[in-house]
Amino acid sequence: MLLALDAGNTNITIGAFEKEKLHGRWRLRTIREQTADEWGILLRNIFSLWKLDLAAVDGMIISSVVPAVDQPLTSMCERYFHTQPLFVTATTDIGLTIRYDSPREVGADRLVNAAAAWFKYGGPAVVVDLGTTINFDCVSADGAFCGGLICPGIAMSIGGLFAQTARLPMVDFREPVQLIGTNTIGAMQSGLYYGFTGMIDGIVERVFAELGPGAKAVATGGHGHLIARSSRIVKIADENLTLDGLRIIWERSHA
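The chain above was modelled as a monomer; its predicted structure follows.
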């Protein structure tokens, strides 16, 4: 069994694979001070609840953009799963050429998403990853990661609205009942939902013009399905894209 971990700034997403089958998917908070034993106990409890065998894990792959958790996760893998994890970096064989001014600057999650989009959907393609930030990761028609765009995330914007205004409440990001809000919460939810959808459509439209004919857009991350529901351009929502990318990269490295 392969255990794939995507360590982001807000959450760590974990997937357990038996070949191509995803047995389980879990999301934990990214706690930078958490020890290897605490991570190990959390995973052991998850495996127990899902009736999975800890001893069946014979491989682990990690994409991380949070250096503070790398060593605890490594120690956890060695102590609880008796295996050395593979960390995705710019030098890992992801199956794509990396056309970036400084490849070491690229977040591992962006490389993983680009690889997943290429092998699952072909190119050219753009991945819209709605996480702590909104990342647009572009794959060319000839199979190269060619960069992208990084924008403020949805939760970041909601927090900013709440923190910087005296009377606006904290709201959830959801599809509003109607476009024109007739109360403050409705107006905020409509502005956020259609504001981000419009921004994403506008950026993807410009990216398509550069990538060329046949380009596809894939939304992933916590709010990917909500954006795909109302977007004019982004029609594919794949919540397991990053985990599938990690599995694909693991298989390439152990072919």
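The chain has seven helices and eleven strands.
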